[in-house]
Design goal:
InterPro entries: aa-tRNA-synth_I_CS, Arg-tRNA-ligase, Arg-tRNA-synth_N, Arg-tRNA-synth_N_sf, ArgRS_core, DALR_anticod-bd, Rossmann-like_a/b/a_fold, tRNAsynth_Ia_anticodon-bd. By secondary structure, this protein is α/β, with parallel strands linked by helices. The protein is built from 21 helices and 13 strands. Helix content is 52%, strand content 10%. The strands form four sheets. Strands 1-2-4-3 form a four-stranded antiparallel beta sheet. Strands 6-5-10-11 form a four-stranded parallel beta sheet, with helices on both faces. α5 links the parallel β5 and β6.
Length: 588
């Protein structure tokens, strides 16, 4: 289904051609003076030089061919040569009827669907999720959903950090605390216990304790490095402990991500990429890409066009140990082998940009990916507190993600209870739904690459550009539709008729922008564009609601038309928030 802007541009192009001018001048834009017109065409201004003719005269010739237009109720020339346009109410109503019948409300589905892997989440196991993990999870989840909606095969991978020094630290601290455990007995040959020798809360206490010790005690740190090395060499007792750590940790991670309405298709880990490293490194050596520099193995990745120095990509340290770069490159090898993706997108903190420049260049230079495979990096900004510094607890520590969610839910619960007489259990359930919208919309409404201030008071408000305001609008529409149904009305009856007032027409025009908004949001990896769109739709609906008697409208056909328009507005808003990763309650 064509977009409204496309149909208007086709009509303008045809008018330019009939008037003897290049049809390419027939481009239409949304008016920057909505008090004068809805759309405008500035093509006559651009064509004046080419045709050595006053733009007003060109525009006048073009408008002559729009007199019998099926689309425009008004096409008038204003000095020095702009064409001001208004859409016919009948045409707009017909367009919305087609849009409502279209499976994806005018969104074009990809003609050649791509396989896209999105690497987002990226937590280290054995550590609790904190607010620093929020942006990757929320942004990645939304881009995954948008990509699927436009027809691509999108695979989300959490890519767990499970193979680094933190594992050696945990094993070392456990050995100090419980040396009697069979995992530390080199002579033990039986089966290892099925139950982990720790709970998730114990595990989360062990890691920071061990990390602190390693910073102050070099002998302890060396012991942890050796434990990491032995784990990576496959020492049976340490592998059994590693399996326990993974099992306990991943169960908890899945619970926390589920609370954020974030889900992954793959729970791949750094350790999964380890088997690919030896062959990959050997191949890079054989091809002459990898060479020794001060004992380390590196690949040059600088390019002539660089404006700043890009250091070589290090594959192995002087002691033969692999690094994050090695693991990320081996993960690319694994992904190409398993999925042959057209694109791999990494949603990570923008401070990791240099790392990914090195990894991508190394992967291309050494032929790990085909030339046409796209490797892209969406670097997000920092989530800050009201003081403009990275978001912390009141005590100045890093806030756990589940504590942040609990704080927001409590804030929403209090607001719901203050405004309504409602059962506590119902209020709690609603608060969780609305609280999630506050967190996700608060984050996603900002351009991903920019830092933003996480303001709980503002994000949980039912007024302004917030998640709760969007949900309040959806619930208001649901309430009107339900009331009509309860009174015996049939929501299937009737059709969308031409607008009867300016606020209705404005709402109808806003709805037509859905398709281009979603397509642009995907192309630019920009969920904030969907947020901006649904805020405009919500404002347009609320203006229409306040100015129009809907259920008390006496003309039945007109009432049915209003309700059809409400149904489409609800569907578009609910589809949009699903793409952002949250939902609306039935009542508030």
């Amino acid at each position: 289904m064509k977009k409204l802007m496309e149909l208007m541009a086709e009509e303008l192009a045809s008018a330019f051609e009939k008037a003897g001018y290049n049809p390419e001048y027939g481009k239409v834009t949304v008016s920057n003076r909505p008090d004068l017109c809805e759309f405008q065409c500035n093509g006559a201004m651009a064509g004046a030089k080419a045709y050595k003719k006053a733009p007003f005269m060109i525009a006048d010739d073009v408008v002559e061919h729009l007199k019998d237009s099926q689309i425009f109720a008004m096409a008038e020339v204003v000095k020095p040569g702009f064409i001001n346009l208004q859409v016919k109410e009948e045409f707009l109503a017909d367009y919305l009827k087609k849009m409502a019948a279209d499976e994806k409300y005018s969104v074009k589905t990809a003609e050649k669907p791509k396989t896209i892997i999105i690497d987002y989440g990226g937590p280290n196991v054995a550590k609790p999720l904190h607010v620093g993990h929020l942006r990757s999870a929320i942004i990645g989840e939304s881009i995954k959903r948008i990509g699927r909606f436009v027809g691509h095969k999108v695979i989300g991978d959490v890519h767990l950090g499970d193979w680094g020094l933190q594992m050696g630290l945990i094993i070392t601290e456990l050995k100090h605390r419980k040396p009697e455990l069979v995992y530390f007995d080199d002579t033990y040959e039986g089966e290892y216990p099925k139950e982990a020798p720790f709970t998730i809360s114990e595990l989360e206490e062990i890691y920071p304790c061990a990390s602190g010790k390693s910073k102050e005690d070099e002998e302890y740190r060396n012991e942890a490095l050796e434990a990491t090395h032995q784990l990576q060499q496959g020492k049976p007792g340490y592998m059994a402990l590693w399996n326990h750590i993974m099992q306990v940790s991943v169960t908890d991670l899945k619970r926390n991500y589920a609370n954020l309405n974030v889900s992954f298709d793959l729970w791949k880990k750094e350790s999964d990429a380890q088997p690919y490293i030896p062959d990959m490194v050997q191949k890079m050596k054989d091809q002459g890409f990898a060479y020794e520099d001060q004992g380390a193995l590196v690949v040059d990745v600088k390019e002539e066009s660089d404006t700043k120095e890009i250091p070589p990509c290090m594959l192995l340290k002087s002691d033969g140990a692999s690094l994050y770069t090695t693991t990320d490159l081996a993960t690319i090898v694994e992904r190409v082998k398993l999925f042959d993706p057209d694109e791999i997108l990494y949603v990570v903190d923008k401070r990791q940009e240099l790392h990914f420049i090195q990894v991508f260049r190394c992967a291309r230079k050494t032929g790990l990916v085909k030339p046409e495979t796209k490797l892209s990096f969406l670097g997000f900004g920092t989530m800050n507190g009201k003081d403009g510094k990275p978001f912390k607890t009141r005590e100045g520590g890093v806030m756990r993600l589940e504590n942040l969610i609990a704080d927001i839910d409590e804030e929403m619960f209090q607001k719901i209870v203050e405004n309504r007489s409602v059962k506590d259990q119902d209020a709690k359930e609603t608060a969780e739904i609305v609280g999630l919208s506050a967190i996700k919309y608060g984050d996603l409404s900002n351009q991903a690459t920019k830092d933003y201030v996480f303001d709980i008071d503002r994000f949980t408000s039912f007024e302004g550009n917030t998640g709760p305001y969007i949900l309040y609008t959806i619930v208001r529409i649901k309430s009107i539709l339900n009331r009509y149904k309860e009174e015996g009305g049939n929501l299937e009856a009737g059709e969308i008729l031409p607008a009867v007032n300016a606020s209705q027409k404005n709402l109808m025009l806003e709805l037509t922008k859905f398709g281009s908004t979603i397509e642009n949001a995907f192309e630019e990896k920009a969920p904030h564009k969907i947020c901006a769109y649904i805020y405009e739709v919500s404002n347009a609906f609320n203006s229409f609601y306040h100015e129009t008697k809907i259920l008390s409208e006496e003309n039945q056909a007109q009432k049915e038309s209003f309700l059809k328009l409400l149904g489409l507005t609800k569907d578009i808003l609910e589809t949009s928030i699903d793409l952002l990763g949250f939902s609306a309650p039935d009542r508030m």
